[in-house]
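Morning run. Coffee first, then this:
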Amino acid sequence: MRLTAEEEETITISDEGRCVEIESCKLSLIGRFLTCKPFNKRAAKNTLKKAWGLENEVQIVEVGANLFQFKFNTEFDLERIFNGGPWSFDNQLLLLTKWRKGMKADNVRLNHASLWIQIWGAPFDMISTQVATEVGSRLGEVVEVERRRKHEESNHFMRVKVALPVSKPLRRGGFIAGSEGEQSWVTFRYERPPMLCHFYGILGHDLHHYASHFSATKNGRVVEYQYGDWLKATGGS
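And here it is:
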């Protein structure tokens, strides 16, 4: 597109014309639902408000296609919601990020989902917060790690909260090894996971989304899915 001289002019906006909205945006989160299907937006808003206990204290504004701005009254509520997830509606995960200056509908990037991961099967001498952090850092960005108290009676697994890239399949497990080099396989179980494709292991998709890409049978035999509900953790600590 070739601009005219008038179109090339930069219109400077005064701070006075922005101050109210800037203050409002400072206490806001931007989010979208990780889903491949339509959903009831009004029901989603009402469900989130009730789950957060903020029926009259948060404003939810649609600012793009499946893109919402959540405006809070206090920084305490904003941090509580941002750090307290994962949040979902109808098994569809809500991806959230904090507002930053210059954000608009076409430059918001929501590429990670923060989930608590349980790490099972590690040798007894490797069950520690440091090991959980090291393992979690290979899956994504570590957000938080559970610090167990020494006097706890149960210590079956480690827990770490990780910001996972939603474009990659969930990892079902991995090998860990100490300085001696002996490997041990550990399995990952995900707490409160959203919709998951049992064929590709991608968050936010179900089998219907990929129906045109594969057949349930191959050479007359049923295809065995590599992912399933067994990735879901049955409980936290």
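Helices lie at 19-26, 41-52, 75-83, 129-137. Good start to the day.
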